[in-house]
Amino acid sequence: MNTQRLTCALWLVLAVPARGLAGAGVAGADVLKIPVEARGWGMGTAYSAIADDVGAMMYNPAGMATSGERELRFTYLRLLEGSNFESVLAGYPLGRWGTVGGLFIHRSVPTIDNGAQVQDLPATFYGAAVSDNVVGGYLAARFSHLMPGVRVVAPFSVGIGLKNVTQHIATFSASVTALDFGIVAAYDVIRFALALQNLAGGFTFPGTIEAEADAVPQLVRAAVAVVPLEDATASLTLAIEDTSYLGVSNTQKFASGTITAAESLNVLGFGAEYWRLKKMGVRVGYVLPWGGGAANYASARGLAVGMSFRLFTTMLAYQLDFAYRPLSLGGARQDAGTFSLSIRF
User: Fold this and answer.
1) What pTM was estimated for this model as a whole?
2) Which of 221, 219, 214, 179 minimizes the C-alpha distance to 200?
3) CA nearest to 57, candidates 44, 73, 42, 43
4) Spacing of C-alpha 71 from chain mean position
5) What number of other Cβ atoms are within 10 A of residue 244's Cβ?
6) DSSP per-residue string spanning 77-123
7) What does the pLDDT look like over 9-24, one tens digit per residue?
8) Strand, helix or coil at 151?
9) How far apart are CA 155 and CA 195, in angstroms?
10) Domains of the chain in sequence order
């Protein structure tokens, strides 16, 4: 690989987050910053403590332990400037051993024309195709099932997962394997959750050196939820969650010199979910970026809303989820909506 092509590929790595996601990202594999899941979006991403279905894989895999149904979920999300996300989530209960799940996420970004920014760019890079794929497997179980008779750990559930992220830029590709881990403590009316996501080192494109590796956006989610109302006719859940994007420093070497950038951010989410007769759900949330990197994401502050509809048949149950939440691209406000279709059997 010659120096000219290498320079172009690395420039594109930095260009993709700035164009395709919320804010000018520094970390690589930025596809991992967006949980493609409609129910959590409608609650302002305050979802880790209440996730009890396949959507938990996006926030806290421990939540799958409470699911006793086989489920398949398809989600579509259209983001900034035509960036598209599609995801497929699947879960299968294993009885006392918990629930096993799998996910596939695909992101495509509109063809990027960097001819004006990069001098002497090869003709093949005047329209560079960019996409990402994420494939993962998860396992979640309750401690009380794994360790019968040990009462002190009975309220706890744990979940763990591995996922492989592959990024394609023109004719180049790079991949990394990351670890997710989560725990949920569920009591009568209150739930606590803690999750660590994207635990991995950096990944490099062919022909680059380790010092030029792209860091993975590692996340810490801490959440608490309260259920003040729950009976046969209705339920209400209130939740709050903080998502910390751990500080990332990224150094890239170019023909013109070396560029070092840093990124960190906290996002606080508030959410409420109300279900009526377990057939229709309404959600409202609020997203509040804060901390050192909040200035770049200020326009992501705002209201999130969502709705769910369930249809029960003799053999299958269907659920349709819609959600909207604000995002930001630098200082510009962007609107983002998503919907999911779930099938339980």
Assistant:
1) 0.81
2) 179
3) 73
4) 19
5) 16
6) EE-GGG-EEEEEEEEEE-GGG-EEEEEEEEEEEEEE--TTTSTT--G
7) 333 333 333 333 333 4
8) helix
9) 16
10) 3-344 (2.40.160.60)
